[in-house]
Hints:
Largest sheet: 7 strands, mixed
Radius of gyration: 17 Å
Bound molecules: adenosine-5'-triphosphate, magnesium ion
Oligomer: single chain
Distance between the termini: 18 Å
Strand content: 15-25%
Amino acid sequence: MAVYTLANMKGGVAKTTSVLMLGRVAAEQGKRVLLIDLDLNGQLSRLLGHWPAGQAGIFTDWYETHTLNDALTLLPAPGADFPLDGLTVEEKDLVERITAEARQYDLCLIDTPSGYMPFLRALLRVSDVWVTPTSLIPAVRQASAHYLLRMARLALAIDVHLKVRLLPVQYNPHLGSHRIGLEALRRFVGPWRVLPPVRHDGRFCYADPDGFRYAKNRPILQDYHHGFAALADASS
Length: 236
Ligand SMILES: Nc1ncnc2c1ncn2[C@@H]1O[C@H](COP(=O)(O)OP(=O)(O)OP(=O)(O)O)[C@@H](O)[C@H]1O
Ligand SMILES: [Mg+2]
């Protein structure tokens, strides 16, 4: 069992897209994969055609798992991180629940909301790898790199050992600063912490011919294959 959490305090950096694509790559390689949707916006569940009935609620609101195909399972839990009425997330309960679910799979990918949430500490405890997608726009890549290093420091402070990785996502195929952006990232966080970049195939589509429903854009699947391979043998 391996748990990868996709997180960034910056929104719209392809966290959800990357959860889907990495899950799909792993499933293609014969792994049994669990996708956990912890984002209150439920976008992952929605893209996969499962928006849980009932209201978004407190952290105890977990929904039934949905088998998507032989290898992929979705667990929608869009209220799981969201304290209401003065209730706070019980870190211990979140850790126990995720560990119990993930144990039944080869790989568990967790989608999170943007921001610094208290429950991220719990996710640090259950994760083997912390993956932070980032665009290569200077302000975003800088903030994302800071975020990644900050989470790495937090993990050390609470005596958690996990790998941290940046996943550069190139949104605009015509963006000339791609190479420069990558070099800057590698210098800043260390080359081994930067995954091979994901590019955009230059097309817009409203339905993925291979089964996933994308809102707009389509990243290159092959790039996620490279990213997944790099994650699988990440050793530092
Ligand atoms: N490689 C790419 N090139 C261009 N657009 C992309 C790429 N990857 C994802 N997108 C698009 O960027 C938008 C944001 O992606 P996504 O929802 O995965 O980000 P997110 O980090 O999960 O956002 P949020 O913070 O709202 O949860 C989506 O419309 C998605 O289709
Ligand atoms: Mg998202």
